[in-house]
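Hi Y.,

Following your request, here is the sequence exactly as I used it, all 148 residues.
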Amino acid sequence: MATDLKQAYYRRLLPALAAVAAAAAVRGFSQADSLTPAAARITGVVLFTGAVLAAVGLPIWIRTAFANRVRMQRSVEETDFAGFQRRLITAALVAPYLAAAAIALPLDAFYQGGAVLAALYGAYYHYPSQRRIAFDRRLFRVRGPKAC
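Below is the corresponding structure, written out as tokens. Let me know if you'd prefer a different format.
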């Protein structure tokens, strides 16, 4: 299961990294500011808040909903657990796409940096390492093969 989760992780992360690189290249070569100051402030707040929600808030909500759903079960099926892990990965890796948009647009450095930090946090914390998967398997009482 760890191999499948890592493949899902990289399938979602690599296009985001390409988008960040492309956004940085476009921003480096572009000198024109296409947004008014008011629109840049609003866009910056929306992208920064969205990146933080995607990297921190949404995974907490997904984890809480899953824990609430399985709280009365003696054990959890591995397929349900794998789906839960995939949803966590997908939610957390929305933040790099929002960071790419923040990098590409002429926004304040605070919003760009905050979106990038949120993206880094989401990508780092939700990496499906064997240790994290083993911890979650014990926490949620997952039954099935324990090959990580």
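The radius of gyration is 18 Å.

Thanks again,
Q.
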